[in-house]
Every structure is written in structure tokens, then in C-alpha cells.
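Progress narrative, Year 2. Work on histidine kinase from Oceanicola granulosus advanced from sequence curation to structure prediction during this period.
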Amino acid sequence: MSAIDPLEILVVDDDDGDRALVRRLLAKGRRPARVHEVRSADAAWAFDAVVPDVVLLDHLLPGDSGLSVLSDLKRRWPRAAFILMTGQGDEDIAKSAIQRGATEYVAKRALDLTALDRLLQNAMAMAELHWRLEEQRRELAIFCDVLVHDLKAPIRAVRTLAEQVAEDLTEGQTGEAMRGHALLGEAAGKLGALVDSLAEHIRFDGDQRWAEVDVADLLASVCWVLRPDIKESGAKVSVDVGVAQVHGSGPQLEQLLRNLVANALKHGGADVEVEVAVRESADGLEMTVSDNGVGVPAHLLERIFEPFSRVTSDVPGSGLGLATCRKIAERHGGRIWCESRPKEGATFRVILPRRSGTADATLREAS
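Result:
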């Protein structure tokens, strides 16, 4: 988000007067904002008009408390800044709020234009820093797993084959040395592919360039890059474009679709058929990639999105492709899942929220 984009702010408070105060202050603030209002924790959980940048959450809600729902809402919107509001200042509540994921805490009696501007600026900076630290921690854990587990085997194979080739050459067994040399090349290739997959998984950490991306161009680029794989598999790939543009990072969205189509090509049936569609749905913008392959067992439908998880060892791959897809979908405020039955193919669905710019300037939802 650039500095001139309006903030999407969700106010969760059952007090009409308090919401009106926050709305007036936000209207006068330094940063333009679109204000969305709900009265209860249930309404906050059901809210899906946009992905909020900031959530102003009242501590006392009908039948619930802001503290009790804070952790769940934080998991739903991990990049959002959460500011807990109370009628009176309370250090114990403030401590609990921070422990459960709140970025800032404020007593309503202390709210004025200066205080709210400062709160928003600090909360968003802290939320972004926390997100990046968590993402780096996850990436470090993945990298350590690669070093400990996945790089060991190909490195060991390269070392063993190199020793064998040297021994064959010493003994004058040129034919054996040539065969060993070929195997050495294969092992090095697998090692390089694994490193490339890892690089793709972490390469977009600093990419914050968001814009309107032409969907037809996006899919054309995916098919162009994958044309050797499509030709080799003899696959029939059909594309259905139901929307003109999608808001997000072009390189990341292309990587997401490329990984899904490549996965479908690898796991397709004898006569590979892949269907790709991008269209509007009730929940937002939906991308689907379907194949006619072996399908995914029910117990693996969630696990396949974890790093290094694979449905079968018969198909080559690093096990990072779908993990990268999930990472990109979540970075766009969306989600990804798989629908499948064994032997009946699989459909991967990605839902991205509608661009916040399509929302009304002020949206109020009461429940």
C-alpha cells in the first residue's frame, strides 16, 4: 500500500457515540481512510467487505470481550494492526491485549485527533515489522530444514559419484567413468532445482509493488513459460478469463498460477487436461486450476500446502511449489485450498478479496 492509498479501518464497537467519535477523528486525520463499522464480535468475524489495514476493537462487546476474540481476528487478518479501546485505562488489560496480538492500546477518554494519528502511524509500523519478523522466522525454519534434510542427500550423492568417477578413471574404466559422469550431472541438476525452488519461495520478501494486473496477459505469460512442459506432456490446457484485471503483485500472482498449472501438468492423467479460470465469485476474485490426474487423498488436502510435503514420490519436485502458492495468496489477503477425490483429479481454488478501492467511502454494518 502506498502512502496515498486510503486506509481500510474496521471499527468494532457497540456504542453509537464512540463509533461516531472515531469516525469524526478519522475524517480529520492526516491519512485518508475508509471506515467500516460493526457492533459485535460475531459481526467482525463475518465481515468480508475488504481486508482491513487497522482494526479498532472495543474491549467490552455484547456477550463478549475484545480480548477474547482478539487472537482469532489476528489469525484471520495477520497483517492488520489491532488497537484495543477501553472506557478507562487498565494496565492489566493492556498487558493481556499485547500478549494476544494487539499492536496498540488506548483509553477512549484519551482519544483525540493527535492521539489517533499517532496511534495509527505507530500501530501500522509495528504490525508490518511484526509480520516481516514472523515471515523471516518461518523462512529461516524452512531454510534450516532444507540444509538439514533435503540438501544432504544430493550433496552426498555428488560426493560419492565424484569419488567413483575418479576411481574409474584411475583404473582406466572409461565407460564406467562416463556413466558416473552422467549420474553426477543428474545429481547436480536435482541439487540446483532444489535451490531454485527455495529461491522462488523466498524471492518476493521485498516485493511491495502492487498495481492493476491484466489477467489475460498474466495467463498468457504463464502458458508461454510452461510451453515446453505443456508440449512434453501433450496436455490440453483451456483458459477461461471472466475478469479483466486483478489488483496485486504481478510477479507474485504469475508465480502462483505458474506453480498451480505446473503442478497440474505433473499430476495429470494419461491424457492430461488442465482447466484454468479466473472469475468473480460471491467471496471475491476466484482463481481455479483443475486437472484430471490421480487426485489428492483427503488426509493430505491440508498438508500439501506445507513446505516439502508431496502427494507421491513418483513425481519429481521439491515440495515447495504449493507452499509458495499459499504464501502468495496470504500475502494478498486471500486463501487457497484443494478439492479432490482420489482418481478423479483435483481443483485448486484461490480466493482474493476484492480491491478495497471498490468499496464505498464509508461502510457501516450493524448487527
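Residues 7-133 form a domain with the Rossmann fold fold (CATH 3.40.50.2300). The longest helix spans residues 113-150.
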